[in-house]
Amino acid sequence: MGYTIAQKIIKEHLISGDMTVGSEIALKIDQTLTQDATGTMAYLEFETMGLKRVKTEKSLAYIDHNTLQSGFENADDHRYIQSVAKKHGIYFSRPGNGICHQVHLERFGKPSKTLIGSDSHTPTGGGIGMLAMGAGGLDVAVAMGGGAYYITMPKMYKVNLTGKLKPFVSAKDISLEILRILSVKGGVGAIIEWGGEGIKTLSVPERATITNMGTELGATTSIFPSDEITKQFLISQGRGQDFVPLSSDADAVYDKVIDINLDTLEPLIACPHSPDNVVKVSEIAGTKVDQVCIGSCTNSSLLDMLKVASLLKGKTVKDSVSLSISPGSKQVLTMLSNCGALSDIIASGARVLECACGPCIGMGFSPNSNGVSLRTFNRNFEGRSGTADAKVYLVSPETAVAAALTGVITDPRDLGVMPKIDMPKKFVVNDTAVLTPESEEKAENCEILRGPNIKPFPVSKPQENSLTATVALKVGDNITTDHIMPAGAKILPYRSNIPHLSQFCFSVCDKTFPERAKKLGESIIVGGVNYGQGSSREHAALVPMYLGVRAVIVKSFARIHVANLINAGIMPLTFKNAGDYEKISEGDSLSLDNVFEGIKNGEMILTDNTNGQKIPLEANFTKRQQEILKAGGLLAYTKGN
Questions:
Q1: Which positions ≥6 away from 609 have C-beta within 8 Å?
Q2: How far is CA 614 from CA 469, 523, 581, in A?
Q3: Residue 593 DSSP class
Q4: What predicted TM-score, i.e. pTM, was given to this entire model?
Q5: Are 431 and 106 a contacting pair, CB within 8 Å?
Q6: What is the C-alpha to C-alpha distance for residues 70 and 79, in angstroms, rounded to an integer?
Q7: What is the distance between the terminal CA atoms of the chain, rounded to a whole angstrom?
Q8: How confident is the model at residue 448 (pLDDT cuts 50, 70, 90)?
Q9: Is it true that the peptide bond before 273 is cis, omega within 30 degrees of 0?
Q10: How confident is the model at residue 638 (pLDDT cuts 50, 70, 90)?
Q11: pLDDT tens digits for range 581-616
C-alpha cells in the first residue's frame, strides 16, 4: 500500500509511535512560527524552561496581530518578543512586514518540511506541500527547544478537483464549498489532501487560500502536492533551491474521497455566524451592505490584490459602504505600488490599512451597530469583528468588490467581464524587515526587555485523585475560542497579563462567569459538540485554569483546544452518551472519584450530587497525557523530566 503526501512527511519525521490512525505519534519539527497575540506567552514559556537557544532549522516571530498601539501594552510586548528573538536564535519579522502566514509562504516555507505555529491558520503552508499545523504556544515552545510535537495520527481524506474555475469564481469559493459539504466539524481527526487534474489550474496563492480555510473544517491540516506550479512560485521568490517534488503514491488509500467539479461551482457566501453556513451569492443578492473588508491571511496575496485593483479601477465605492484593503505583506504592498494598482485602489475610495491581520482579529475597523459586513476572511463568529450585533459574511475578493461597488450583496458575475490578471515572473524580494538573531556567542550579552504588562506565567495545580466542584458554566454546541477568550482591540493587549485577561473570559456567553468562577475556587465547565473550535489560542485554556477550572466535560472537542487543556492541566472529558448532557445544570455539584484509575482506563463515572445522577464519561488519554495531567500541565511535566 502506498503513502499519501502527509504520510510521507510524517514517516520522515516520526520520532516515536506508529502510523496507526488514532494512536499518538511524536514528530520532529523543522520550523516554528509565532505571532504577537500568542507569541508573548510562548516565549515566556520558553524562558521558563531554561532553554538558551532554539534547536529548529528556523523559528520566526511575527508581529501582525496586535499592531494597533493605543497604549504601551502592545509596544512593550513587541519589544519583549524582539529581545527574546535576538537572544535565543529566532528571526523577528517587524510590525508592517506582513501577516505571518503570507510572509512565511513567500519567504520561508519549504515543501516536505514540518511547521507548527501558535496560530490555527498555520496550515496555509500546505499550499506549497508543507505539513503545517496550528498548535498551542506551549507546544511551539517545546518544539523550539528541540522537543517533539505530539498529535493523534490522523485519517486521510482526499478532495479530487476536476474542471476549471469560471470567471468571478475563485479559490475562496472552493473553500466555502468544502465547508458546505463537510461542516465545521467534518474534518476533525483528518488531514485533507487536495488533488485531481483541477489543481493544475490553481496557483500557489489559490492553493494557500484553500489550505488556510481547511482550519475551519477542524482538520489537522490540509496539503497540496509540491509540483511544477510550486517550483515556479519558489523560483519567482528567488528560492528555487527550496523546491522538493512531492506527491502521493498511485496506490495510496484514503478514508474518504470527495469530488468537486470546478466547472459547476458558483460564487458562494458564508452567512452569519459560522463558516459552514454557506449558500449561493445569488440566493441572497440584494441584501444591504454597510462594510466590506478585503485581506487577512486567507485572501491578501498579490493575486488577490491585483484582482481587486482591476475590478475597482475607474470605479467608486458606493457612498453607503466603507471599504478596507489590507495587503498581506510588505512584498505585496510594494508590488502593488510599483505597478500602479495601489493608486487604482486608493482612487476608488477604499481605505488602505497596514499589512497586518487588523479587522480579522477585531483589531480596528469594526462594523457599525447591527451592520452587515462582507469579509474575505476565514471566520465570522459572533462578536469577533468587535461589534456584538454585527452580521458578518465570508466571501471571495470578487464578491467583496461587487458589494462595495453596488452597496448590496451582488453576484460578481453581474460586473461584466473579468479583467485578465498577469502575474509577474519575479517578485520583489526585500527581507530587511526580518531581523537576524545574534550569534550564540554574542547572545549572552543580550538583555530581555519586559514591560509592566508582562506578568509571570500562571502556575497550575497537580491533579488530585478526586474532584468535587460546581458547574460554573454550561454552554451549547460549537463554542469557539472567541467565545472562551475573546479577541479585539480592547482585550488583545493583555495576552501577556493573565490576571487582567481573566475578567473577559466567556464574556460573550456570560459576563458574570469570571467573578463566579473566582468565588467558587474550583469549578467545572459543561459544553456541547465541537467545543473549542477556531483559534489555537492557548489563553482559552490558560485563563480558565487561572480561574480554577479543573475539568471541561463536553460532547466533543476540537483538536487543538483539547491539547491546550491538557497542557494547562485541565481534564478534557467527554460524555459517553451525548444525551447525558441534558442531565446536568449550571450550579450543580459534581464529583469524580478514582481520577487516576479513570484516566488510565479511559472511563470515569461522574456523580451529580445535586440530582443523584450517575453519568459515564470517556477519558481517552495517552500515557504521556496522563502524566501531564497528573503533573498539572505540560510545563510542570517538562520541568520534572
A1: 468, 588, 589, 590, 591
A2: 15, 18, 12
A3: -
A4: 0.93
A5: no
A6: 15
A7: 38
A8: very high
A9: yes
A10: confident
A11: 999 999 999 999 999 999 999 999 999 999 999 999
